[in-house]
Amino acid sequence: MNPLIEFQPTVHQSLPFHLILPEHFMPAAIHWIEVSRNRHSDIVANPKEPTFANTLVELEFASRELDIVSSCFYNLNSAETNAEIQSIARELSPLLTEFSNETVLNESLFLKIKQVWDYRAAESLTSEQLRLLQETYEGYVRNGALLQGKDRESLKELSATLSKTSLAFGENVLKETQIFEFYTEKKSDLEGLPDDVIEQAELLAREKSRIGYVLDLDMPTYISVLKYAEREELREIFYRAYATRGAKPNEYNNQEIVSTIVNERLAKAKLLGFNSHAELTLSKRMAQKPETVLRFLDDLKKLAKPAAEREINDVSNFALKNGAHLPIKPWDFSFWAEKLKKVILDLDDALLKPYFKLENVLDGAFQVAHKLFGLSFVQNIDISVYHDDVDAYEVFDDKGNFVSVFYADFFPRTGKRAGAWMTSYRNMFVFQEQAFRPHISIVCNFTKPTSTTPSLLTFNEVTTLFHEFGHALHGMMAQGTYPSLTGTNVYWDFVELPSQILENWCYQPESLKLFARHYLTGEMLPEEYIDRIKSSQQFLEAYMTLRQLNFGYLDMAWHNATIPFSGSIAEFERSATADTQLFDPVEGIISSTAFSHIFQGGYSAGYYSYKWAEVLDADAFERFEQEGIFNEVVAEDFAKILSSGGTIPPDKLFETFRGRAPKVDALLRRAGIAN
């Protein structure tokens, strides 16, 4: 019995992870591809005139089971992968790409869609139906439905290559992260590191049958080393290990893969009638054109760069006074910045972490969601999970109606990629008059609890949890009929608004008092600490803005190019980011070879979205600040943004909430760089 073919009765039709084995994926995918293919054939063979109902609706749901299987597989490939799953991915990805190409290049199917589009005025379509029709028609055109002959074959080949190379890119980054370890027998080598990090290092050493301490390259450890390790040598070792992933002269080198990806993306864009991959991608974004993005980045840079240079000078001067040598190195900046922060704000992670026990912070996010949107979260151990670290919850609204399944996966482990993300196992949709609620997950990499200490979060990790939880609310609160339009299926430069706006509640006394308690004493976070946290919102904000712009410019340099790339990736990077470079270049350091957002994730020609959405979030949150951060009317209005997904254009959603188009002023005020 294959549980991905013969779906078992489970709580809320959730996935039976306890029954799913790697060998189930290929047979299930092959089976559901064939079922989907037959459904497409039925649409084409229908002798009746094409209508929205017999063409668009049938097409929208034709691959519903395949979508469940593929989302399950790729989510596990990110959060719980192994050699077997990675091997299957190399076989499965081309198969799914081939089927996708076959679908969008099915001329008979496209002609039916086009006929419905051409005669759309003849049907009384709702705004949601019209949106699905437009997105489907334009999506087919953008994916080559109008191509003929050799161009069609070229597109298929390019898509297949991109599918394989993106997978290989991610596997190499993961391997480079996994194979690194720093081992020492001397605790003195770890001077300055928090006790829980040292305890975790000792535990890891024991697991590897060693006496002493082992530090790996997971995100909590990496950040702790750069912020707190007193030994500059240790900071440099970790910085170089992290910043050269995919760039070392070994089997995991991504330089050729990067070249292939950018050149294949360019070739694909040109086949489809666009000058660059950025032009193709941005045609379905709020920004619409590369020129708009570059102007947006330039305008922010003019304001942020002078302020960032002052901030870097402040840190450098502080470091010099305290015994460092100039110029300050990139592996030293976080270390000295943290010490300066302690002096200026009397605030550091060691002071705050005891008040941010993971379970309390998660409960705080739940309470914020309840106060804003009436949601309640109830853990259910009968919902199957894919790893013991994962907890599953049922989500209900204020009337007791079931809203969503929610999975929380918080700790690093072998087979889990670095970083933090939200994902979906099933989007919300209505099929045959039955509403299917979403199944949503957030995945993070926080320090694991030890035998003596629970998982205590840095304040940055607190905001990370709220950020991903904001994405989760976007998915969980979805309302709509068609899965391709619900939840986070919105334009990429709008998708970060729900996540980034929720971070603001981490700085508000009214919400901090809900969950910030000392894990030993139960004491509330002192008022003066809350004031310092609020002040810290502007600490090095210009520096962080310029750093984000640096990545945005690099992304656009790769993807707004109109001629194929050849040459040195390191030199290309230096040229692309010269005007936002924060430190003197370090030989061997390359960002692109581990820039998973743009070469493995969905952020190609879209990294600017973080700053773009920050403009939206700062502007939107000012309304909460003015009317109350838990104001029922404002929350109800914002819930419309969360529930609408892609059924309404994002600019209309924002303007309805704010009463006008977005302005950058609120972001500049919040960042302290308005002048």
Structural class: alpha+beta
| Number of E-state strands | 9
Largest sheet: 5 strands, mixed
CATH architecture heading of the domain at 354-537: Orthogonal Bundle
Mean pLDDT: 96
Top CATH class of the domain at 354-537: Mainly Alpha
Quaternary organisation of the protein chains:
single chain
Shape: globular
* Fraction of residues in H or I helices: 55-70%
Question: Under CATH, the topology of the domain at 354-537 is which?
Answer: Neurolysin, domain 3
Strand order, sheet with most strands? 3-4-5-9-6
Helical run tally: 27
Question: What is the CA-based Rg, rounded?
Answer: 25 Å
Mind explaining what this structure looks like?
The protein is an alpha+beta fold and 675 residues long. Among the domains are: 11-146, Glutathione S-transferase Yfyf (Class Pi), Chain A, domain 2 (Up-down Bundle), CATH 1.20.1050; 180-243, no CATH class; 354-537, Neurolysin, domain 3 (Orthogonal Bundle), CATH 1.10.1370. It is 56% helix and 6% strand. The strands form 3 sheets. It has a 5-stranded mixed β-sheet with strand order 3-4-5-9-6. Strands 1-2 form a two-stranded antiparallel sheet. α1 (25-45) packs parallel to α4. The termini are far apart.
